[in-house]
Amino acid sequence: MTLTLALTPCATLKDIFADGTRAEKLSKGEDLKLQRAETMPQTSVVFSSILGPSCSGQGQPGMGERGGGAGGSGDLIFQDGRLISGSLEALMEHLVPTVDYYPDRTYIFTFLLSSRVFIPPHDLLARVGQLCVEQRQQLEAGSEKAKLKSFSAKIVQLLKEWTEAFPFDFQDEKAMAELKAITHRVTQCDEENGTVKKAISQMTQSLLLSLAARSQLQELREKLRSPAMDKGPVLKAKPPAAQKDILGVCCDPLVLAQQLTHIELERVSSIHPEDLMQIVSHMDSRDKHRCRGDMTKTYSLEAYDNWFNCLSMLVATEVCRVVKKKHRTRMLEFFIDVARECFNIGNFNSMMAIISGMNLSPVARLKKTWSKVKTAKFDVLEHHMDPSSNFCNYRTALQGATQRSQTANSSREKIVIPVFNLFVKDIYFLHKIHTNHLPNGHINFKKFWEISRQIHEFMTWTQVECPFEKDKKIQSYLLTAPIYSEEALFIASFESEGPENHMEKDSWKTLRKAYSNSDS
Description:
Layout: H1 13-18, H2 20-27, E1 76-79, E2 82-86, H3 88-95, H4 105-114, H5 121-141, H6 145-165, H7 173-187, H8 195-224, E3 234-235, H9 246-249, H10 253-268, H11 273-288, H12 299-320, H13 325-345, H14 348-359, H15 361-364, H16 367-370, H17 376-384, H18 388-406, H19 420-433, E4 443-444, H20 445-462, H21 472-480, E5 483-484, H22 486-496, H23 502-519
């Protein structure tokens, strides 16, 4: 059934990937007006300065400098001491330690994260194994036993960092076989005291525990996953008037904002760096018609994206289902206060979802109700989410929350939950606008430094422990309360305040006819 008045909740991740033309328009800042009767806005990429001194990702290497191994010299380009491009082979060689060199930790994270765009993790691991063999052979030929032990310890340290940062790279048999092959070679020079063997054993145990925990979490999410929305049942008509509403469960805006923050942090914690890199990998697989980015692995992104849309729909449902105008006014003012508390906490994602719900057409058209609402607070919130100048106001607030988090004395001050869709679009457009390869064939590593920096910052935010006490009753309501379908929202809205123009009257007539036919 097609309605003249379309309800348009916030764009999903599929929308981000769906239309290259739309992406180009958005990257130029078009179609970015925030209106109550329209969807929450899209965004274009934010071009922050590429890696300032505090987060350049290319500090001084821990042990010596390396410009590429055999055949790799000259294949890495540095600018002001910062690696900006190189061939894939040279970048792989730069990852592998030598006797007098160990790669910077930020380089390890950035390359391991970005390399999956060009080569599967198990193939990269195989190449790392080959480079290890070559160096071992050179050291063995020189009978330098002490250097061989030092080199082996560094290889174990590299593998430890890899397995800790990206344990899911080792979930398939090929990668695990390569890991075993490398560690087997390394232990051959550790027959005296077994130090290397002990480190490998600890690394392997930690890896298996991480894989088991993530696998169990994935199975649980799949069981709970709804085919349509990660939410309770979708209502097609108004529920009984006696049914409980949000104010019957929680009437304190601060408490509700805290419980929303609990849910946000719990859900966002299931997102991993490689999940976010799927945004880049998927684009390359689509453009080149090869499957480097498996979108089936983005369930954690989709689940978090669905949560945003469900929260928006819940807000709209809670407002539209109220029969009396006085109570609807109170409900709107309550959610405005909740959104403001979310802003103060640093929970920008819930705040945006709530504003989005109040901006949906069935809610926005309730002019008589809105006329009774004290909208000054709402106007301030909309100012923070003004899409002009690439959401400049929001980004300023986000930067302030980030600075507060970095100097925080309490866990409450550490909370930063960005608007997820805007974060995803920033990564998407950063990848879209800058090429993977330079004209000389080098990988544009300057681009991947910036993508990695943004993802690393996001991951830092996700690791904050929620300081608020959990209220199971409130959370249960937020996660399981039935929400209206799009049609039901319009029906409830028209029943509260009748149609005012020909377009609304036609839509109302269409809706009533459709529902009378479905009931018969």
